[in-house]
Every structure is written in structure tokens, then in C-alpha cells.
Specification:
single chain; 406 residues; alpha/beta; 2 domains; 6-stranded mixed beta sheet; 5-stranded antiparallel beta sheet; 20 strands; globular; disordered N terminus
């Protein structure tokens, strides 16, 4: 009887550890990305074919260990001690022998982005609209928030390879704008800068102040190879941590580059696994220019999709809204955007601005779900799927996580 009572009390401790009320927060600069209410889209009935799923799902872990993709909590549960009596018949306290049971709990954190078919953020969903499956088993969501502007620590990874020279000024300005948009001076938001060419280095360590990062970006000049994988490795292993990572704040990496790598000591598979184990979500602003084939584009896509992020292509469709280049012949040459008018620069600047607002909006407008895994599995990597009971939406989250080991 006493053992049952103690066991129930211990279980209550385990479950109670993770119910964390959302913290109040001042909002940073609002993202220009439009939002849409769920009521405008029309909710589907449970089991309806319009139910949207995601094969990508995100989680979180303690920053003290790189062995898992979860937050690991160890709870000591002491078994009932046998009562003893002395020579006079009085009961005595049990001895101090430690026969405790150690229980390891996997708390999985899942940041989720939901957009409609036009790319607008769906911002008013509730906990009941989400279902999370781990290895096809429905999990009990124990924490949910849709609060905007949750604490984050952001790594800005900037490509300084020779390939970036053509549009360097655009990338430089975009990186500075992105830093100033996401780092507002509020202590909830931290960032660091890693640049990479032939080698990768932490140019500015973790700080709440955007100015040191912006100033450093202004002094950088491109040239050399591309060690992008090493830059991701540094972001996961070699910069100053912020108290509370990776739960509050969450970990984000934003790569501004074309995905090319010819100088790293680490492989793509190695850094993807490292990012997953460290609960890092990777976003990419591709610098691949219009009309240039990029065989390494799949690299950025893999990094983003495997960690729950995405890739935007600001220079991939610069001519999207212009006439064909032969429509208006001129003595200056047959260009879609007239030479000398600044039209091309304006188009590029506009695309870069929209890319910044897309990424900034996604980082600051995610839903956060936490659950304690009850899956009985010996697998190190566990697949996660997020389901939203709403038609005509896209759900973006991480595909899975690495479980904590006892």
C-alpha cells in the first residue's frame, strides 16, 4: 500500500516537472509577413481527408549533453524502507542505504509553423487542433503555446566564399538587416556570427547587442573556399551558451549562402545529426543567382528539412514579374530590366527584403509543443509526425529526434 502511494507521488513529480507556464514577453519588431485566422480557412472534421500532416518535427534537449535530442530529466524514486525495531520494541528509522530507482524521462519539444496555401502564417490555432505521433503512437501534449516572440538564440552563418562576390553587397545588407530585425536589444533574443570561406570561425560570440555583429559584417570581404559544414559544426559546439538553452531560448541557425562546400573537415550527414541532437532548427537564405545551376541546392534543403526549417530563394525568381527579355528590344541590349535604371537592383533588394521578413516571421511566430515520450522503443532516432485538423494548410516541423539514453 505504501509503495503504491510513493510510486504515484513520484509519477506526479515526473509529470509535473514539465508543465511550464508560458512567460510573458515584449514583442520585437513585427514581421511584415501576413497572417491569417483559422476561421478564414475552415476547419476540417476529425478524420477528414483534408487533415494535414508533417513528416518533420522538432524537439529540445539539455545544453549540457550532445548525446540526445531531448531534455533529459532524472528523478530519484526511493522504495519503501523496511521498518525496524530495537531491543525495547520501538520502531527505528531505516538505514541510509541507497536503493533508489533512477528514471530517465524524454521531454520532446516541437516548434511548429503552420501556413496557408499563400504562405501566410496561421496564427490562432489551439492545442486541440494538433496531434503528435511518435513512431505512429499518439502522444499526450503537456505544454502548448502560440505566444509570439519566444526567446531564441540565433546563429548567423555567412558565406564568404569566392562564389558570393557577384551579389556580395546584397548579401551583406540582407545579413545586417536580418540581425537588426531579430535582435532588438531585449535579453530574450541573442545571436552570434560565424563566417566561413576556406575555414569557419566564430567572428562574434553570443550577445544581445546587434551592433557588434552588424559592425563585423560591414568589414567582411569574400574570397576563398567554402567550409559550410564546419560552420554548422562550430555553431553547435564552439560558442557561448545562454542559460536555459535549448528550451528557453530555442536554438536557430540562419545560413546565408548557396550551399556549396569544398573545404570542410566534417560531412553533411555528421552536421545534420549534430544539429538534431542539439535541437537546432536550420533556415537558409539561398544566394544562388537567377540563371545559374546550383548542384548543391539539395544540401540546403536537407539541412532545413531534417531540422524543421526551410529555404528561401530571393534571387531565384528576380525576373518573375517582368516581361520576357526579347519583348522590348533596345540598343542597350535585350535585357528584361532596362540597363542603367536601377531596376535590377531594386528587384533584388525587394526579393531580399521579402526573404528577411519570411525568415524573421517564421522564427518569431511558431507554435511550441512539449510532450513526454511514452514510446517503448530501443531506437536511438525516433520518427515524429504532426497532424493539424485544418484544411488547406502546410505544417512544418522536424522529422524526428534522438532519444536520451539512460
Amino acid at each position: 500500500m505504501r509503495f503504491c502511494i510513493l510510486a504515484r507521488a513520484a509519477a506526479a513529480v515526473v509529470l509535473g516537472v514539465f508543465v511550464v507556464p508560458p512567460s510573458s514577453a515584449q514583442e520585437p519588431k513585427p514581421a511584415t509577413k501576413p497572417t491569417v485566422q483559422a476561421s478564414e480557412l475552415g476547419k476540417s472534421k476529425p478524420g477528414d481527408s483534408a487533415k494535414t500532416t508533417s513528416n518533420e518535427s522538432t524537439q529540445s534537449s539539455s545544453s549540457d549533453s550532445q548525446k540526445s535530442g531531448t531534455s533529459e530529466t532524472t528523478v530519484t524514486v526511493a522504495p519503501p524502507a523496511a521498518e525496524k525495531t530495537d531491543s525495547s520494541g520501538k520502531e527505528t528509522k531505516p538505514d541510509g542505504n541507497d536503493n533508489s530507482i533512477r528514471v530517465t524521462v524524454n521531454e520532446v519539444i516541437v516548434p511548429i509553423t503552420v501556413t496557408d496555401e499563400k504562405g501566410r502564417f496561421v496564427s490562432d490555432l489551439d492545442k486541440k487542433d494538433f496531434q503528435v505521433y511518435e513512431e505512429n503512437k499518439l502522444q499526450n501534449i503537456q505544454y502548448f503555446t502560440r505566444e509570439r516572440s519566444q526567446p531564441v538564440v540565433i546563429g548567423f552563418l555567412l558565406d564568404l566564399s569566392t562564389a558570393s562576390r557577384i551579389h556580395w553587397k546584397n548579401y551583406q545588407n540582407a545579413a545586417s538587416e536580418l540581425v537588426q530585425t531579430l535582435l532588438t536589444g531585449d535579453k530574450k533574443y541573442s545571436g552570434y556570427l560565424i563566417d566561413y570561406a576556406q575555414d569557419a570561425e566564430v567572428a562574434v560570440n553570443t550577445t544581445n547587442d546587434p551592433e557588434p555583429i552588424v559592425e563585423k559584417i560591414r568589414t567582411l570581404k569574400p574570397g576563398g573556399g567554402a567550409a559550410m559544414y564546419d560552420a554548422v559544426y562550430l555553431a553547435c559546439t564552439s560558442r557561448k551558451l545562454v542559460k536555459g538553452e535549448p528550451i528557453e531560448p530555442r536554438r536557430i541557425i540562419i545560413i546565408i549562402g548557396d550551399g556549396h562546400d569544398n573545404a570542410s573537415k566534417h560531412s553533411l550527414n555528421q552536421v545534420i545529426e549534430l544539429a538534431q541532437r542539439n535541437l537546432v532548427t536550420v533556415y537558409c537564405i539561398s544566394t544562388a543567382a537567377f540563371g545559374f545551376a546550383n548542384e548543391t541546392d539539395d544540401t540546403l534543403v536537407r539541412l532545413a528539412q531534417e531540422t524543421g526549417g526551410r529555404v528561401v530563394y530571393p534571387l531565384g525568381d528576380v525576373y518573375k514579374d517582368t516581361d520576357g527579355y526579347l519583348s522590348h528590344p533596345s540598343d542597350d541590349g535585350n535585357y528584361a530590366l532596362t540597363v542603367g535604371t536601377g531596376a535590377y537592383k531594386s528587384a533584388v533588394d525587394g526579393r531580399m527584403y521579402h526573404a528577411i521578413s519570411d525568415i524573421a516571421g517564421e522564427v518569431t511566430m511558431q507554435y511550441i509543443i512539449r510532450y513526454i515520450s511514452d514510446t517503448e522503443s530501443s531506437k536511438a532516432y525516433r520518427n515524429v509526425k504532426v497532424v493539424v485538423d485544418l484544411g488547406n494548410v502546410r505544417v512544418r516541423a522536424r522529422k524526428g529526434y534522438y532519444a536520451a539514453t539512460p
